[in-house]
Amino acid sequence: MAASPHTLSSRLLTGWGGGCIWYLERRAARESPRRFLHLLRNVNQQWVTFQHFNFLRRMYVTQLNRSLKQQIKPKPEPAESPFLEKTSLDEAKAEICEMRPLVPPSLPLSRKPSEKALIGLEPASVTEGSVALGRETKEEKQWKEMKLHADDLPGILARLSKIKLTALVVSTTSAGFALAPAPFDWSCFLLTFVGTGLASCAANSINQFFEVPFDSNMNRTKNRPLVRGQISPLLAVSFATCCAVPGVALLTWGVNPLTGALGLFNIFLYTCCYTPLKRVSIANTWVGAVVGAIPPVMGWTAATGSLDAGACLLGGILYSWQFPHFNALSWGLREDYSRGGYCMMSVTHPALCRRVALRHCLALLAMCAAAPALDVTTWTFPVIALPINLYISYLGFRFYRDADRKSSRKLFFCSLWHLPLLLLLMLTCKRRVGEEGADAPRS
After folding, report:
1. Of 12, 399, 406, 415, which one is least surrounded by beta carbons within 10 A?
2. Rounded Cα distance, 348 and 341, in Å
């Protein structure tokens, strides 16, 4: 039978040798738990190191795969616009640094880089990208001023002065001059024609000068000359001054002071009242209608030298006509007007916008019926003008009822031909001088 360790130790306890063996046995029994804990700690430390190494290896493989995917043919840059600002320096730098490979493609996959090498790769790429970007930015990433050529100047000034709107103003002034109960004077007519046109060009140019920041936000007006930078603001103001001064002078000293005062008042009303009011209140529409009603009154006063009931009737017709015309136009531009920050009835009060348009369509019927009573036309005029007035009133009712883009477009396009046809009918039915009317003196 084999002896146990305790029996063997008890036999060897006698003498010096037995005491040494007993001491070593007791020490080994005491220190074995400490050694085991120390060994366990070392194993844990080695395990943490192994986990860290695995993390670095996975990060290296991920970055390398990303850099390989980014090595594709760069997309060609779009054509550079001469008047649109390029991307900012920070955005361009971020784009270049993002597309630049973080790890050189020639680095073998079997080689595992150290942590310092991985950290040092990105600053080197950023430095190279910054240097390349600095050279490119100085040459290409800048504003480029558009060169003004003498051949393009007439067209630019025509758009600055809103030549189509100016043509409408001049035509209504000419109609007022022709409808006045006075002999037709060609020299006075030409002076009125040129003076009114110059005053309208000045007012429209100043209007565009004030509205550059807001026109740039609207699709309808973002291509105007001042917004695109085709001309400088100084040139626009100089052009407006060169139109306003001779225009008012021609109307004042070439025609009569009353017409000159009306022309100057209309420039002031359009630029200093209507233009800033567009961003404050919907009352701008009524002020703008007054601006459009003054030109035929100027034509009447240029021919007669006085303000009478006929001039007020012509102004009233133009005043009422502008509400179905402009309200129908603004209905399709509600998004543009709200983006530009303008207070229009179609944006803030859509129901009122439709009601006002219908109301003034019906007002045209009443004013055309009053024309023969004021000795402006014969009694034939209300009868032959009734069909077109009923038609625009019907379209105004459709716009009020349907409240959609289709009905607003129909009303707007009807207003474009309604006014010239109405004025033409008034000219054909004009009360001649000496027919139940006195010839008003002209100063």
Report:
1. 406
2. 11
